[in-house]
């Protein structure tokens, strides 16, 4: 997988990708990552890339010319271009899976100021939002997208880790514990120390459902539950409710 991240602040991206899983994936040549400074594609003095809005209005708008030139400098027939913007489609785990599987080159364009000249959208394949709030810039959303896709690429992390993560079956992850057994009177559930793998798995399946019902009941999809979870859900539902 190759990523090309177009940004006004390459240092923000460089700082993150020089650490942790992204760094290891790059060193192992599982991904190829380039950071592109948008200011390198302007022909104006002082590396200017923004201008006042036509029609008036607060804030500066990034001009189309340097953005399109930056995209064209790396785009190939198989590239997929993402624009990070609050107006985009909400980013989900299923999107990360789709992108990891279907694309070999992703270009991520980081938004800033009052946005881009609207004509830039003709050169973008998908607008993506990571939530209904506004950030100073698109670097953080770009890194969220980069990280969530990369960890799904084969050999980046252990396959078993994927299977146990939140959202993999539309449920949140089960609670986890480590030493000490007793922390200020709060002890680890005894089933986890039993060594009985079937009972441990049953406990975790039940906890996944309970945690999701408590924190994110909107995620529950009965078609994706296993037998243990379906039976537990039936017991928890009020009488008469389907």
TrEMBL record:
<keyword id="KW-0808">Transferase</keyword>
<feature type="binding site">
    <location>
        <position position="111"/>
    </location>
    <ligand>
        <name>S-adenosyl-L-methionine</name>
    </ligand>
</feature>
<protein>
    <recommendedName>
        <fullName>tRNA (guanine-N(1)-)-methyltransferase</fullName>
        <ecNumber>2.1.1.228</ecNumber>
    </recommendedName>
</protein>
<dbReference type="GO" id="GO:0052906">
    <property type="term" value="F:tRNA (guanine(37)-N1)-methyltransferase activity"/>
</dbReference>
<feature type="binding site">
    <location>
        <begin position="130"/>
        <end position="135"/>
    </location>
    <ligand>
        <name>S-adenosyl-L-methionine</name>
    </ligand>
</feature>
<dbReference type="InterPro" id="IPR016009">
    <property type="entry name" value="tRNA_MeTrfase_TRMD/TRM10"/>
</dbReference>
<dbReference type="InterPro" id="IPR029028">
    <property type="entry name" value="Alpha/beta_knot_MTases"/>
</dbReference>
<keyword id="KW-0949">S-adenosyl-L-methionine</keyword>
<keyword id="KW-0489">Methyltransferase</keyword>
<comment type="subunit">
    <text>Homodimer.</text>
</comment>
<comment type="function">
    <text>Specifically methylates guanosine-37 in various tRNAs.</text>
</comment>
<dbReference type="GO" id="GO:0002939">
    <property type="term" value="P:tRNA N1-guanine methylation"/>
</dbReference>
<keyword id="KW-0819">tRNA processing</keyword>
<keyword id="KW-0963">Cytoplasm</keyword>
<dbReference type="GO" id="GO:0005829">
    <property type="term" value="C:cytosol"/>
</dbReference>
<dbReference type="InterPro" id="IPR023148">
    <property type="entry name" value="tRNA_m1G_MeTrfase_C_sf"/>
</dbReference>
<feature type="domain" description="tRNA methyltransferase TRMD/TRM10-type">
    <location>
        <begin position="1"/>
        <end position="221"/>
    </location>
</feature>
<dbReference type="InterPro" id="IPR029026">
    <property type="entry name" value="tRNA_m1G_MTases_N"/>
</dbReference>
<dbReference type="InterPro" id="IPR002649">
    <property type="entry name" value="tRNA_m1G_MeTrfase_TrmD"/>
</dbReference>
<comment type="similarity">
    <text>Belongs to the RNA methyltransferase TrmD family.</text>
</comment>
<dbReference type="Pfam" id="PF01746">
    <property type="entry name" value="tRNA_m1G_MT"/>
</dbReference>
